């Protein structure tokens, strides 16, 4: 097998494309409009900011007048006399299959407590001060949607340091870093000591939180309050297998969610299971039985499908075999992917104080990408 970063042959097709064969035998077709748009000369592209220089309306619809190539580059002269040079290692990236595959996240689905031995548990100093430690945390979030950071100072300030390293605190109506006890600052079930069935947060926001960070700072004079986690993607796959019509419904029906308190009224409607339009794989779960808004339905079939499909999906999420239940202790910060993993807690007694924050999905994926874990 030859080197993929060398050019073997180049031909100009009769329908305005260059067909390039690389040293590894791969042949890729580039339309002339694409090539002109991807000219990397200094007047077409600002290399320092990685931005294109021209509006798409001023990029001319020109044809290739002539071209030459050597083993590493192709030189094109356009019908308006502009000249472009394309490097082999630039062009080879745009083989569609490889390109698309490289952009796909590859979650490893899990069921119940079996994931406990797989998720990263790492000392806070390793996470904050070493690249390898940071990679292990983000890889665990990408693979399983959960990571645990141990040895953290038992304070909101120490937790905030961890949140910053995970991508930065996302501000919402609940604040940036929040702290909650059983006192009711917000009109939300989370601020009581009742059990909380597993759910995703912020189904009523146009952009739900990306990560949820939780740190139990104190639990005294009582019991319970164990964390429940379940893999939302796993449940969706089970539903697809056992009740394909329910899966189909939940990927299409726009379920409205809402959050109301004095001075606030959030609402958002979207499918409970969001699929990638091309791969048809789940990319986001919006499951929260508490925050469902009162809705009108088109007809009786839609109304009955809504109840049937939500109940069927809820059965997987509420199944103890699918849940990972554990007690979060002071010093351990849990980070979980709110687009995928559902969280809940058992009821509790005593005095319990938690702190945490959200991190936006854009911000934590930015960290993972900068570490070279994703494209
Ligand atoms: Fe929650
Ligand atoms: Zn140019």
Automatic annotation (TrEMBL):
- Catalytic activity, as annotated: N(6),N(6),N(6)-trimethyl-L-lysine + 2-oxoglutarate + O2 = (3S)-3-hydroxy-N(6),N(6),N(6)-trimethyl-L-lysine + succinate + CO2
Q: Give every TauD/TfdA-like domain span.
A: 118-358
A GO CC term assigned to this protein in UniProt? mitochondrion
Q: List the Pfam families.
A: GBBH-like_N (PF06155), TauD (PF02668)
- Enzyme Commission number(s) from the entry: 1.14.11.8
| Gene3D superfamilies given in the database record | 3.30.2020.30, Clavaminate synthase-like (3.60.130.10)
Gamma-butyrobetaine hydroxylase-like N-terminal domain segment(s): 14-91
Query: Which cofactor does this sequence's record say it needs?
Result: Fe(2+); L-ascorbate
Q: Does the keyword rRNA-binding apply?
A: no
Q: Which GO terms describe its molecular function?
A: iron ion binding; trimethyllysine dioxygenase activity
User: What are the BP-aspect GO terms?
Assistant: carnitine biosynthetic process
Recite the UniProt keywords alphabetically: Carnitine biosynthesis, Dioxygenase, Iron, Metal-binding, Oxidoreductase
Question: Which PANTHER family does the entry mention?
Answer: GAMMA-BUTYROBETAINE HYDROXYLASE-RELATED, TRIMETHYLLYSINE DIOXYGENASE, MITOCHONDRIAL
Similarity comment text for this entry: Belongs to the gamma-BBH/TMLD family.
Q: What does this protein do?
A: Converts trimethyllysine (TML) into hydroxytrimethyllysine (HTML).
Name recorded for this polypeptide: Trimethyllysine dioxygenase, mitochondrial
Identify the species of origin: Spodoptera exigua (Beet armyworm)
């Amino acid at each position: 097998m030859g080197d993929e970063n060398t050019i073997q042959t180049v031909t100009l097709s009769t329908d305005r494309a260059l067909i390039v064969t690389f040293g590894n035998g791969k042949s890729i077709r580039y339309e002339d409009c694409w090539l002109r748009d991807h000219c990397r000369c200094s007047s077409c592209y600002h290399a320092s900011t990685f931005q294109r220089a021209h509006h798409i309306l001023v990029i001319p619809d020109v044809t290739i007048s002539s071209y030459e190539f050597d083993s590493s580059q192709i030189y094109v002269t356009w019908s308006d006399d502009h000249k472009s040079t394309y490097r082999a290692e630039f062009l080879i990236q745009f083989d569609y299959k490889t390109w698309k595959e490289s952009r796909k996240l590859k979650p490893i689905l899990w069921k119940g407590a079996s994931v406990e031995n797989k998720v990263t548990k790492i000392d806070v100093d390793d996470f904050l001060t070493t690249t390898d430690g940071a990679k292990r945390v983000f890889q665990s979030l990408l693979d399983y949607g959960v990571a645990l950071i141990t040895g953290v100072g038992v304070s909101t300030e120490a937790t905030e340091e961890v949140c910053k390293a995970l991508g930065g605190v996302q501000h919402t109506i609940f604040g940036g870093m929040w702290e909650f006890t059983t006192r009711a600052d917000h009109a939300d079930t989370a601020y009581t000591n009742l059990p909380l069935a597993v759910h995703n947060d912020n189904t009523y926001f146009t952009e739900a939180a990306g990560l949820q960070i939780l740190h139990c700072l104190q639990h005294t004079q009582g019991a319970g309050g164990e964390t429940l986690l379940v893999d939302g993607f796993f449940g969706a796959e089970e539903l697809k297998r056992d009740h394909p019509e329910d899966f189909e419904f939940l990927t299409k029906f726009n379920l409205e969610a809402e959050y109301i308190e004095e001075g606030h009224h959030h609402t958002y409607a979207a499918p409970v299971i969001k699929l990638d339009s091309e791969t048809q794989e789940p990319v986001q779960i919006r499951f929260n039985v508490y925050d469902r808004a009162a809705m009108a339905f088109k007809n009786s079939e839609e109304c009955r499908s809504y109840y049937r499909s939500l109940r069927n999906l809820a059965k997987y999420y509420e199944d103890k075999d699918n849940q990972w239940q554990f007690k979060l202790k002071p010093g351990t910060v849990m980070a979980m992917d709110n687009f995928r993993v559902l969280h809940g807690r058992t009821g509790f007694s005593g005095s319990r104080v938690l702190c945490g924050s959200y991190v936006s999905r854009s911000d934590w994926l930015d960290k993972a990408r900068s570490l070279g874990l994703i494209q």
